[in-house]
Amino acid sequence: TSIIFGLIPLVKEKLVENKIIINSCSAITGAGRKAILDYHYSNVADNIWAYKPFAHQHIPEVIETLKTKTGCTIKPYFTPHVAGVEAGIYSTIFVTFKKNAAEEDVRGVFNAAYKNCPFVRLLANALPKLKDTAGTNFCDIGIALDSEGENALICSSIDNLIKGAAGQAVQNLNIMLGLNETTGLL
């Protein structure tokens, strides 16, 4: 979710090169309920490590969803990390523009894409912080461009147990039942 939300506007508008580098830090709660020593609190707390580079099970989902939503196929280079935090996923997405871009134009693309999305917050002149999405159904997105407008870093933050799972399920159920999608989530 954090990766897809960070990429859809740029990929849909065909603004970025196909080589996309993604790093995501996830709380151990994203790993399921395996009884493995690595997942014990004493090994997770105040720790971070990379796992499954180039082979993470969610990358085919990201590729397929982006293809379905944008008509474009991307080739992401993805490294997930386990982070010793209570809950959340923080993704940093490095893209290179096909032609140099101005920050206000990139922000305009994101604003247009998410103007009717009550749970996506595009931050002005700031990058998201994981604690700001903890316990919420929000996805916070921040954008930083290099001085030439050649490259950008898109950062997105979600709570993996809410927006990444239960909250997103409630939001989808609300839509399916014809309710306001924010019912029970704000």
Which keywords apply here?
single chain; 186 residues
Summarize it.
The protein has about 190 residues and is of the alpha/beta class.
Order of secondary-structure elements? HEHEHEEHEEEH
* Biggest sheet overview: 7 strands, mixed
Task: Write out the strand line-up for the largest beta sheet, numbering strands in chain order.
Answer: 2-3-1-4-7-6-5
- How does the helix and strand content classify structurally? alpha/beta
In DSSP terms (H or I, runs of 4 or more residues), the helix count works out at: 5
Uncertain runs with pLDDT below 50, 5 residues or more?
Answer: none
Helix content: 25-40%
If you compute it from the alpha carbons, what radius of gyration comes out, rounded to the nearest whole angstrom? 17 Å
Shape: globular
For the record, give the distance between the C-alpha atoms at the N and C termini, rounded to a whole number: 19 Å
Relative strand content:
25-35%
Counted beta strands: 7
Counting copies of identical and different chains, the oligomeric state is single chain
Mean pLDDT: 92
